[in-house]
Design brief:
This protein has helices at residues 70-84, 96-107, 126-135, 145-155, 164-174, 193-196, 208-212, 232-241, 262-274; strands at 3-6, 12-18, 22-27, 47-52, 89-94, 112-118, 175-177, 182-184, 219-224, 246-250. The protein is an alpha/beta fold and 275 residues long. Helix 1 (70-84) crosses helix 2 and helix 4 packs across helix 5 (164-174). Keywords: Hydrolase, Kinase, Transferase.
Length: 275
Amino acid sequence: MIQHFTSIDGTKIAYRDEGAGAPVLCLSGLTRNGSDFDYSAPHLGDVRLIRMDYRGRGASDWADPASYTIMTEAQDALALLDHLGVGRAAILGTSRGGMIAMFLGLTAKARLSGACLVDIGPDLSREGLTVIKGYIGKNPVAKSMRDVALARARMLNGFANVPEARWLEEAQKHFVDTGDGLRINYDPDLARIFDENADAPAAPPDIWPWFDALGGLPLALIRGANSDLLSRETAAEMQRRRPDMVFGEVPDRGHVPFLDEPEAVAVLRNWVESL
């Protein structure tokens, strides 16, 4: 069931809080929402699964586009934990969510019990950022869910052997049928994050200190083998700095894996057991 709480600036933030056990806060990709974790939820075992829709995405209120930053979204995440009375939580962060996890490691490490980063690291590939910049904030040309599902199958780089039913499920999660075409289910003004820094939205030039700040916490990394955002070189450097990090690469997946693939599930289970 979707619930809401009110952030410090009055924005209503949507979340789901399900299960019991170690708290795991799920943070999705830049334009996405908590439904991203529907695929992984059955594989996480006995955890308290908390899923937040960022401001401007999913069932949360749209807000001042100037607040669509990693720093503000991290504050919202901590406010949600406070609202729920959760002192410490592990973060399962996909793409943007992984950036927020690293930022919280730097600024609020005492609130974290671990982090699993999904297809994200301290260096972002220019190729992948260009792809995101090309579609963010734009409604699809396709007029039906099936058409947009087929379009996504063609557009998304690095994906193979994905059933058509999965692409249709993805379309239904991330687009709204208005009766007169489809629209994105997030604030189109989210595209403004590229205005000031066309290469790396809302991120400083060097965020390796963010990653290093996760030292001492149970850490995992899942990479799509064909990712255009997280390079093999960056993943290798992350492993060098954290040789204890649980790592898995998912074949036939680009940015980002669905997280129900066997390779992803193995990492998630190993990570959850370490919390």
